[in-house]
Write a structure and sequence with these properties.
The complex is a heterodimer.
Chain A lengths: L2 H23 L11 H13 L4 H31 L1 H14 L8 H8 L3 H25 L3 H9 L4 H39 L4 H10 L3 H36 L1
Chain B lengths: L1 H23 L1 E7 L6 H8 L2 H4 L2 E7 L3 H10 L4 E5 H9 L4 E9 L8 E6 L14 E4 L5 H12 L8 E4 L5 H6 L5 E5 L2 H6 L4 E5 L10 E8 H6 L1 H20 L4 H11 L3 H10 L10 H13 L18
Parallel strand pairs in B: 1-2, 1-3, 6-7, 6-8
Antiparallel strand pairs in B: 3-10, 4-10, 5-8, 5-9
The chains are: A mainly alpha, B alpha/beta.
Chain lengths: 252, 318
């Protein structure tokens, strides 16, 4: 995004916030439903300065990263196998097509029965949510490799391991990264939802807790923290993507 | 020609009468929790006391007052059954709530309207044993949570070290028996249902400290509703009062038991066993003195900054 484009979009957000502020102060919006953005901003600032944000943020982020990493490893591994070998694909595809369409939040109640309320349950559900986009895109990335590249590797008698890491993966990297970006967004959704339902800390827990105590500025402030986490996530992923694509291009 | 006119006139008249009749009956939505506290309400429904007042009440279930009050403010329900702690917190934050009728008061002696239970094999006997464990409450920041914390702190534990998990009352028996929570503060009749299971034991009775009766729940409306529909509030309270009287007079009768079994989905035999254990008498005024004691507890736990005058929020129905 050019800097000018950012200013236009950013300015638009500021104008919307100003309208919201006036709406609340003018009495058009009930203050019991939505406090003024200025009040939320002040509450957010005090939350940061008092250091109250770190623990829940760390908890949610930790589980998110654990689940996402696991999903990447499993998704890429199975994706490579399914993409390369027709028999493996036929074996797993029906199972994937049954589980994939289920919105993962719907699986949280059954998972709570098996795994309880703790970190294991949350990591499992985050992994499940992030797994499928990565899997599908890895399969797609592997299957759309230019056959000439594969044949060239065979001509040069490149062994299977080197073929995977130096030929297939770099070629499939753009598609895998596209899947990973989607997966990261889904993982955040499921992580927050897991916090809300499993009640033992994290950002989602704080949002629900503040709502229970009718502390609306705090509740909205926590929602803003989640949004900031999402932004940070997207930014870091963008940097990772640039670095990986550079590596992939140079290695292929 | 004349016969046809008469025929149409009769149809028109009937339509008119029906319309007028429909306009007289007002439909209100009430958010409820399916526990013993709302027995007088259910009695008024089944005995037709609300219908006598031309009120049609549509009950919608909620997990607790912390959910019912936002629904009330958003206008999706007109009357909310909620616990006193949520009301006090709401009043302190400036929410325009008004109490129109009492719901439940604790008995003051075990077995009470709610209590702490755990698995008999868990080895948990004191508040200290609950450190680091999961205790189920219907929602946090309400009266159940408050008194559970108070019991834990008065019985050798530190309630800050306890993980309070939100579980709706009807799901608490499953959650406890399946080990998803280590203990729970459960409300009747789910409490009585659990205690009839040999695997469960009573851990403590937070409401019965001091043997005093404590007002736990009330019915609230918004301030705007009191200004716009005082006649509906009077009608509700009149119907509810009859329901309270019926519930107190017919305690334990077959009609009583089948009504309770109906809205809680617990078998009549279990309900019979629960009502045999204690004589329930529902109050018809809010026990303001007990609310003062609850307020002190709330201030102690930091959920209320200073005492508020609850009398200002109670609407005395005519």
């Amino acid at each position: 995004m050019s800097r000018y484009a950012f200013l236009v979009g950013g300015g638009f957000v500021v104008i919307l916030l100003a309208c919201a502020e006036m709406a609340v102060r003018g009495g058009f919006v009930s203050p019991y439903m939505a406090p003024a953005p200025s009040q939320v901003a002040l509450t957010l600032a005090s939350m940061f300065s008092e250091g109250r944000v770190l623990a829940p943020l760390g908890q949610t982020l930790g589980l998110l990263l654990a689940g996402f990493t696991l999903a990447c490893v499993l998704g890429i591994a199975l994706g490579l196998a399914m993409g390369a070998d027709e028999r493996v694909y036929n074996l797993f595809d029906p199972l994937v097509e049954i589980i994939r369409p289920i919105p993962k939040p719907a699986l949280i109640p059954p998972l709570m029965l098996f795994l309880g309320f703790g970190a294991e349950m949350k990591i499992v559900i985050i992994t499940m949510a992030a797994f499928f986009p990565i899997l599908i895109n890895t399969i797609g990335g592997v299957k759309t490799i230019d056959p000439v590249v594969l044949q060239t590797a065979r001509t040069f008698r490149v062994g299977p391991a080197r073929t995977i890491f130096q030929v297939i993966l770099p070629s499939a990297t753009p598609m895998i990264l596209a899947g990973a970006r989607v997966a990261l967004g889904l993982a955040l959704v499921v992580a927050i939802l897991g916090d809300m339902l499993a009640s033992n800390g994290g950002l989602g827990f704080e949002i629900v807790d503040m709502q229970r105590a009718f502390m609306l500025p705090e509740m909205y402030a926590w929602v803003v923290v989640v949004s900031l986490l999402g932004l940070l996530q997207a930014f870091l992923f963008h940097r990772l993507e640039s670095w990986l694509t550079f590596w992939a291009r140079n290695n292929a | 020609m004349l016969r046809r006119s008469v025929f149409f006139a009769i149809i028109l008249l009937q339509a008119l009468v029906t319309q007028v009749h429909a306009a007289e009956k007002t439909a209100l939505r009430v958010s409820l929790i399916p526990i013993f506290d709302i027995i007088p309400f259910q009695a008024a429904q089944t005995q037709g006391y609300f219908a006598d007042q031309n009120l049609t009440l549509d009950g919608t279930p909620s997990q607790g007052g912390a959910q019912g009050i936002p629904a009330l403010l958003a206008g999706s329900v007109q009357i909310a059954f909620t616990n006193v702690v949520s009301v006090l917190q709401g009043l302190e934050r400036g929410l325009p709530l008004r109490i129109i009728a009492p719901a439940q008061e604790t008995i003051g002696t075990p077995p009470d309207s709610a209590g702490l239970v755990t698995l008999a094999a868990s080895g948990i006997t004191s508040g200290a044993d609950l450190s680091g464990k999961r205790v189920g409450v219907n929602t946090r920041n309400n009266i159940i949570w408050l008194y559970a914390r108070s019991w834990i702190d008065q019985n050798g534990g530190d309630s800050r070290a306890v993980n309070f998990v939100e579980v709706p009352f009807p799901q608490m028996p499953d959650a406890l028996l399946n080990g998803r929570i280590d203990a729970a503060m459960v409300s009747q009749p789910y409490l009585g249902d659990l205690l009839q299971d040999k695997a469960v034991k009573a851990l403590g009775w937070p409401y019965s400290a001091g043997g005093l009766r404590t007002a736990t729940s009330v019915y609230v409306v918004t301030e705007r509703f009191t200004a716009e529909h005082p006649e509906l509030i009077s009608a509700f309270v009149a119907g509810l009062r009859k329901g309270i009287a019926w519930s107190n007079e017919n305690f334990g009768s077959d009609a009583y038991i089948s009504m309770v079994s109906g809205y809680t989905s617990i078998e009549p035999e279990k309900i019979k066993a629960i009502v045999k254990q204690a004589r329930w008498k529902f109050p018809d005024v809010v026990n303001v003195e007990s609310v003062r004691r609850t307020m002190e507890l709330m201030i102690h736990y930091g959920t209320l900054k200073a005492p508020i005058d609850i009398n200002a929020a109670i609407i005395a129905a005519r």
